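hey
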């Protein structure tokens, strides 16, 4: 029998959101892990809020909303709030009742400084990493490191000479016509995003920041992520800083570190060997001349390329590239929505935490 459309809306509907979410939905496991981590952070949240005044939005719900944005590729916080207004799955994940209106995007802006002051995003990310270590998804044998570029929010029109005559600051279109004029990071700077630099990956140069990730080579679990200036030396600098942070926070010192040819500088290789880490970096072709410690480290690295350990590390290293690709094109880091390294760093950490939680869920289901 053919059914009939019901044009009259029901005035009252009673249902349980828990029953609307399938038992095997991947968000169930992610929510379970998030709730446990956020419960452990309760004291950190208490320090951020006073005992009196108007009741605010639970910080647990706001952090989980940022995870949703990364997991489902939602392009902005405004679109996120619009989706949460009618999406039952999202409201269930946030523990936000259907009868309550969704908060506005301004709530993220008002609470962002509060989160930065207490480093709540960093603490959440590090607790996710600690859980991955407990479950054996992060070891101390093989690590991989890689870097990429994040397009700045600012455009070419904002690039003006440093300390020179900038003309009429309101005439942005006049500065967009730079054909035939030389621009470089030593002579020009963006007035919108001063920490951004002109950089390219073999194509057009855009205002960018550098993104760096340190991951377990076997599982692709991100142990640390960093955002820095795209100055051409940021990859090696941040690799050492991330290794320091992982060692200090989690007590991990990898046995080997796989990397591409951008990490093949002799000074960097020497520093890794000094720390007891065996570098497995790709090397550019050409004769290595010189007898300094850096030159000898490069020759050792070239001899190491014939070993089975190096070949295994390089095969595993390729997995970090799709990890960074997911963070950029699904997680939204392809082009940042923020100004300044600190806020871009928090955004990158939430995206990396979303990847790690998704990775833990998939690996747990495969066992």
């Amino acid at each position: 029998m053919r059914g009939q459309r019901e044009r009259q809306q029901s005035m009252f509907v009673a249902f349980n959101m828990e029953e609307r979410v399938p038992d095997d939905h991947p968000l169930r496991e992610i929510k379970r892990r998030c709730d446990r981590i956020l419960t452990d952070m309760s004291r950190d949240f208490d320090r951020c809020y006073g005992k009196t005044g108007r009741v605010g939005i639970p910080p647990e719900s706001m952090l989980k909303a940022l995870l949703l944005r990364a997991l489902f590729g939602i392009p902005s916080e405004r679109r996120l709030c619009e989706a949460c207004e009618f999406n039952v799955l999202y409201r269930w994940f946030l523990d936000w009742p259907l009868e309550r209106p969704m908060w506005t995007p301004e709530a993220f802006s008002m609470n962002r400084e509060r989160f930065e002051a207490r480093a709540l995003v960093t603490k959440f990310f590090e607790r996710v990493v600690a859980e991955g270590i407990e479950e054996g998804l992060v070891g101390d044998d093989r690590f991989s490191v890689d870097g990429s570029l994040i397009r700045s929010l600012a455009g070419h029109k904002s690039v003006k000479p440093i300390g020179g005559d900038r003309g009429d600051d309101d005439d942005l279109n006049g500065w967009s016509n730079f054909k035939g004029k030389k621009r470089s990071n030593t002579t020009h700077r963006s007035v919108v995003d001063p920490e951004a630099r002109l950089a390219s990956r073999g194509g057009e140069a855009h205002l960018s920041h550098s993104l760096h990730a340190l991951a377990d080579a076997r599982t692709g679990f991100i142990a640390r992520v960093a955002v820095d200036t795209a100055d051409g030396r940021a990859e090696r600098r941040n690799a050492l800083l991330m290794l320091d942070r992982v060692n200090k926070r989690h007590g991990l010192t990898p046995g080997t570190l796989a990397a591409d040819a951008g990490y093949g500088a002799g000074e960097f290789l020497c520093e890794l060997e000094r720390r007891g880490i065996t570098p497995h970096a790709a090397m550019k072709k050409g004769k290595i001349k010189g007898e300094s410690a850096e030159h000898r480290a490069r020759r050792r690295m070239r001899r190491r390329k014939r070993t089975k350990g190096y070949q295994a590390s390089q095969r595993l290293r390729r997995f970090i590239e799709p990890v960074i690709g997911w963070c950029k094109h699904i997680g939204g880091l392809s082009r940042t929505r923020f100004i300044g390294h600190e806020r871009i760093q928090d955004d990158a950490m939430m995206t990396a935490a979303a990847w790690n939680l998704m990775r833990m869920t998939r690996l747990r289901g495969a066992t």
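The longest helix spans residues 341-366. The first strand starts at residue 142 and ends at 151.
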